[in-house]
Amino acid sequence: MFDASIRNALHKLKYRRDMALGDALAAQLSEFAIGLKWPIEVIVPVPLGKKRSQERGYNQVNLIARPLALSAGITLLRML
Fold first, then answer.
1. CB atoms within 10 A of CB 14
2. Helix crossing, 60-72 with 21-36: angle to 10°?
3. 8-state DSSP, 1
4. Model-level pTM?
5. Beta strands in the chain (DSSP E)
6. pLDDT digit string (tens) for the chain, length 80 residues
7. Counting Cβ atoms within 10 Å, is residue 68 exposed (0-12), middle (13-18) or buried (19+)?
8. How distant, in Å, are the alpha carbons of 21, 31, 59, 77, 80 from that of 16?
């Protein structure tokens, strides 16, 4: 699904709390998403379950979605 470097970065973000990777991954995704030229109106990060959110203390998807939305000029909707 993902090449080894992307998979490793996602695992570091998700399990090792390397939160700076969110911006780096978002930059790559932004270029990809803009290149698709799809009419993307919003980005909606899927929230973690309550238990998982308490365990981690953060949602790794938000760490990618927010900078991605900002750099691509797309509205970010957050679900509660």
1. 16
2. 50
3. -
4. 0.79
5. 42-43, 75-76
6. 567 888 888 889 888 888 888 998 888 888 888 888 899 899 999 888 889 888 888 888 898 999 999 988 889 998 76
7. buried
8. 11, 26, 13, 26, 24
> Cα–Cα distance between 80 and 52 in angstroms, integer?
14
Take residue 28 and report the two structure tokens written for it: 């790559």
Cα–Cα distance for residue pair 11/20, rounded to 1 Å: 13
Structure tokens at 24: 């780096």
Q: Which tokens go with 16?
A: 């090792």
